[in-house]
Each structure stands twice: as structure tokens, then as C-alpha cells.
Design a protein that fits this description.
By secondary structure, this protein is of the alpha+beta class. 49% of the residues lie in helices and 17% in strands. The chain is rod-shaped and about 90 Å long. Keywords: Membrane, Transmembrane, Transmembrane helix.
Length: 150
């Protein structure tokens, strides 16, 4: 039987390993996960999308500004077509800037967590009757998750 557990880098991990060794379990393997080295891509590709769109507010504001620009263009010198296009471009740029700023503010909080250590996967090989005891020890030492595989 194998027991898998994930831990944060902490002294609780070391205490859990020490307690398992005291109970006679020697088949313990730990794998530290690497932190992300680079920032995620800002723009989506056709093959990968994170679900964040930077043009939603831009399109809404482009429509609103173009309608206002076209209606005001009847009394302005360049006419409704030019003022409608100017309003559409201005609205799109304003909406894009708002979405981009909000995205950067959200990602700044995630970037602050970049220095935090990632998790460690602990793999323990044990007998069937020791499985419950191993699982209890891991939960007592603040494991993030535990799974038993026969």
C-alpha cells in the first residue's frame, strides 16, 4: 500500500517523517515541487486560455462612445461617421486600460506570493494494516491532503 500526502515546507513535515520512522516505516520518499519561474502570459493564444478577457469593457464602452459620438457628430464639424469612429476607438482604449489595470492589480497580489515555498509530496510505502496509522500521523502533522492507494 502507498500513502500520498502533500505538505507545505514547514517543520511539521520533518516532524511527520520523524514520527513515521519511529513507528518503523522506512519506505518514505519526499518530492519538493518547484515554484513557477516566470510570470504567466498576459495574452491568450488559440491553444491556451486562462478565461480572462481584456476586451469586454472595451467593446461595451466602444459601442456606448460611438453612439454618443455619432449622435453629437451631426452638430460637429467632421460629421457623425468620423465622430462615431473616434468615440469607438476612445471607448475601446478606455475599457482596455481599465481591464488591464484591474488585471495588474489582481496579479500583483499573486506575485507577492511568488516567494512562498511550494508544497512537498510525501510518498510512504507501508503494509495494509499500517495505512490507517500512517494516515492519522499525517493528518496530525497538518498535511494539506492525504490519499491511500492499495
Amino acid at each position: 500500500m502507498q500513502v500520498f500526502a502533500t505538505f507545505d515546507h514547514s517543520s511539521y513535515l520533518e516532524l511527520a517523517i520523524k514520527k513515521l520512522e519511529q513507528h518503523g516505516i522506512k519506505d518514505i520518499y519526499s518530492v519538493p515541487l518547484d515554484n513557477r519561474a516566470e510570470d504567466p502570459a498576459l495574452f491568450d493564444t488559440i491553444h491556451q486560455s486562462d478565461g480572462t478577457s481584456l476586451i469586454n469593457k472595451g467593446m461595451i464602452l466602444a459601442v456606448m462612445f460611438s453612439v454618443v459620438g455619432a449622435s453629437r457628430g451631426f452638430i460637429l464639424e467632421w460629421g457623425p461617421i468620423y465622430w462615431g469612429l473616434i468615440g469607438a476607438v476612445a471607448g475601446f482604449l478606455l475599457g482596455f486600460a481599465i481591464d488591464f489595470t484591474l488585471l495588474k492589480l489582481r496579479n500583483r497580489n499573486k506575485r507577492l506570493l511568488k516567494g512562498v515555498k511550494s508544497e512537498v509530496i510525501l510518498i510512504i510505502g507501508c503494509q495494509e494494516e499500517e495505512g490507517k496509522k500512517v494516515e492519522t500521523i499525517l493528518w496530525e502533522h497538518l498535511a494539506n491532503g492525504v490519499a491511500r492507494v492499495n
